Amino acid sequence: MTAVIRVEGRRRSVLRRAWDYLASFDGLAKTAMWTLAVLFTAALLGRLFGLGGSPTAIVGPRLAPPSLAYPAGTDSLGRSLLPRLLEGVMTTLLLSAVAVLLTAVIATLCGIIAGYRGGRTGGLIMRVGDILYAFPAIVLAILVAAVVGPGYIAALCSIVLVTVPLMTRMVGQATRLVAQRDFITSAVISGVSTPVIMTRHVLRNISGTIAVQGTYALSVAILVEGGLSFLGYGVQLPGSSLGLLVQEGTLYMVKAPWLILLPGLILVLAILAINLIGDSLRDRFEPREARSLE
Question: How much is the pTM?
Fold first, then answer.
């Protein structure tokens, strides 16, 4: 019984600390977090419980404006736009988040190796990153789509290749600064193995850089996915994403402007919210990194 009470107390303590940490952000960051939370919750409800109806069902007249019956209007086939918007938000956010997680793993591993070990290995990693970074993002994404074929895999691979180079460089720079600290030298003299130093000491002290770069990579990922789907190389019909909905809306910009305005507005809100969160994280972590690292 006592053990159960201790576990419950620890859970409440962790939740309390997490809540206090979120509450310490400024007003803009909180607004951005709530915006993302609302978008994701609505998309999740649409996926799990069919909020707004079926995204493929023809429910009314073609190109009907927003009304009580059709809150976001209908598209060129008479399908309600609301469930397609919710499906598009889920697809774009989920696809971008998975891609950025892969980016974070690859960039963190490569950046720590390049920044800590240096030498030929570090130089090779950085040169490969420079080559990828030299390509315009959308051109690189189109090249990937041409190789693997349009679809989810193309969008995923494109986002990773576009976001990895810059994040690797930033992680590498942060690693080099940490590697020059006295506690790293002490660990080396004490005989601590290189993998332990990288994971226990270096990774711990560059976590702020990883978090900040991860948020910026997420905003770039959403932009790349939207651009790729807009050009027809990303998510394909009958699927839905914000970029694909914008592409469909361009055909009816004058007759049915809501078809492009609504997904475009959601796309802008999502990217703006993520950038505001990234700015808040940067302001939070930079003073910490400026102090003596532990």
Answer: 0.86
